[in-house]
Amino acid sequence: MDINEAINNSGKVHYNYNRLEIPENDLKTLIHAAANAPTKYDEEHYSVRVFTDQKVIYDIYKDCTKSYGLYKDEEDYKKLFIEDKNGVYRQNDKMSITNSQTWASALFVFVQRNTYPRSGMGLIASGKTPVKGEKHQWSDEAKDTVSDQYNEDKMLSLGISAGQLILAANMLGYRTGVCSGFKIDALQWYLNVGKEIHEEHFLGGTQGDELRKKEAKLMIGIGHPNTADPRMHPELLNKDLEEKFRTGADHEHFMYPTWDKKCHVELNGKLFQS
To answer: Which CATH number fits domain 3-271: 3.40.109.10, 3.40.640.10, 3.40.50.300, 3.40.50.740?
Structure first.
């Protein structure tokens, strides 16, 4: 594919796929792209969980991603959660939808690792001289000094890797959808335990601290494009939503909104017009 076409496709979220199997060689290339992006000092800031089993992907999509809230004003926002007969607040199904960009041929989940710096940056901050081959023991003071910067480096590394994966996928002719809106405890249950999700995990759960030692930050769906509008939700019909949020006739599928995106770019101090 032409590089500019791939870049343009990379900048769009694809919400539906035909979910055909990705050939093994392509899958290996995608994994290579996700795992080999640059990181500061070659730190191992993240790990990647890859799913191709369609049942597992669908379960994650249905159980973990219903976090796209529809609202137009403050009054709408207050209705996103409603109280049920047991006095428990739950999402308002008439105003909440699943993030279908995750229901794809393959699902990549980026997980931030709970690590401390092994690099010279941390050693300098702690006032100690690095010794080749020696594993540095961190003082509490040194940890505090570099903690904010290190966590920022983690997120930068994860973002660079995600971008590299997305571009690689689109260069291979696939489409991609990025999702950062998901129920963290529910997804952590899948990643750490691999069993069915129980209702308690939707409401906060009891294992939060332990599960967040390796916290999921981002999901990317990758799949073959189909003939449908890429903004079309594959399951949700307009009739299932409050009337003000419908995007067409009752029998038609909900269409995700789009917004214009313009990045301010300067070239040698002057506004760049592409």
So the answer is: 3.40.109.10
